[in-house]
Amino acid sequence: MGRLGTTEAARIGPARSHLATFAREAKVCLKAPVRDKGRIKMSEYQAVGKVEDFDEGVGRAFAVNERMVAVFRRGEQFFAIDDICPHMGASLAEGHLEAETVSCPWHAWRFCIRDGTWEDNPRIKIDSFPVRVENGEVQVLVEPRQPKV
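Request: output the structure for the sequence above.
Response:
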């Protein structure tokens, strides 16, 4: 697939255009939400890779239910949070992970990988997602964003 057109890139902004291209080209975990009489049903866990595909302390980004999700491995535990930093749209999966805190690679905003809390202002959070390992597969449960009414 090609890159975004000039008009589309200008509309969503340069910081997000590369992420939109990545999401469109991602080959794993793209699954449209299931609708039942106009309502979105509960999602199911989606496999994002095998346990051995994840290196200790290194984030990986995935498109799951039309959302970008950053998955991190700490020992035998896995964590998933929104991949998009709310400050300027950088990929948190590309950030530096220290203990349970990932730092945004652009401006060093720090988020807890357990619950998405912004370390500098705990009243603000990004979404975090349940992760499980089944039969050697890392699986993430991501609810689609609800349409704004």
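The chain is about 15% helix and 30% strand.
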